[in-house]
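Kindly inspect the following:
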Amino acid sequence: MPVAAAVHRIEVAPKPGTPDPIGAAVARDARALGLAPASVSATHVYLVQGPLTAGQVERLRDELLVDPVTERATIGSSPAAAGAAIVEVHPLPGVMDPVALSVSDAVRELLGVEAQVATGWRYDIAGLDARAAEHLARRLLANPVIQRVETRPYHPERFPEGKPHDHDVRHIPLINLSDEQLSRLSREAHLFLSLDEMKAVQAHYRSLGREPRDIELETLAQTWSEHCVHKTLKSTVRYTPAAAGRDPIRWEGRPGHERHADGTVTIHNLLKSTVAAATFELIAEGVDWTLSVFKDNSGVVALDDRHGVCIKVETHNHPSAIEPYGGAATGVGGCIRDVIGTGLGAQPIANTDVFCVAFPARWAQGPGGAGRPLPPGTLHPRRILQQVVA
């Protein structure tokens, strides 16, 4: 008789007396929030949905998920310690969960069963009431863009399921919109195009005599995005010296620069007129180790007579400010991708990461904390930096 698919919960935590570095780090960071938990213990939560027997769940626990030397595992939910509040952090539906994907593959290899897996973290916080523990979770442990906070052990009967898509071709009314309506469409549809860009799109579809399809509008917005086009780097910039008449920069002979009588300077195409222009000037003066610049996926410089080195820099501040871990991983991944995609293909050998944040000490991390209050909807710079490094 086939076993019905159900959601099985398995908790994995350090054994009593063994170090709990994740819990200790949370307790340490909580003090910077102005909170003082007596202790924090961290437990990894695995939710497995599939047609598993009780014996298969025990085998999964013992042979795959727990290290019997340093960890203990519980099927279901273990009770909270006396005086401890429980909070859990789980990814939102649709958010990538690499650990869950690996466990799902391992379940298939170990048991021959197709199962869906989701993971999360449980924190037992002693010395704080439930409200303070939830505040700690929302300020320190969860990012609302990708995660949700639960105030009790999360064990759903079924995983959330997506709704069927109708696959209808949708046309977006655009060609008769006013400027105000175009700006609203760009904002509400998350196109993030300026009014001038929206008007250019509108003019194009007026010339075609039809409204854009949704996929066309999304494609234009993505392709014309700051990330893909680097509009800021290619923009025209007007530079004003900090002190009139005391500009320390020598502007003479710089291509793409236009100096004005009031001391300001217009720089046409910031990237082309600065970094690129300086590079080509050095090449013209005799630098011969730049094998390929501003052409392929990454720049190539000569190491010796036989080897070239590919170097790629990725700008990723905004995604990393919203979701630091994933944003930084995507940025580094983009560099690796572009090195691999240079010429006939190169071998990545090293990563470096330079990331700039505001001075952490200037911003309060919690109510009553020292420093200025954070702007609404922003993450604390210390947390951004920690997650980028992670």
User: Anything to note?
Assistant: The CA atoms of residues 297 and 341 lie 6 Å apart. The chain has a mean pLDDT of 91. DSSP finds twelve helices and twelve strands in the chain. The first helix runs from residue 21 to 32.
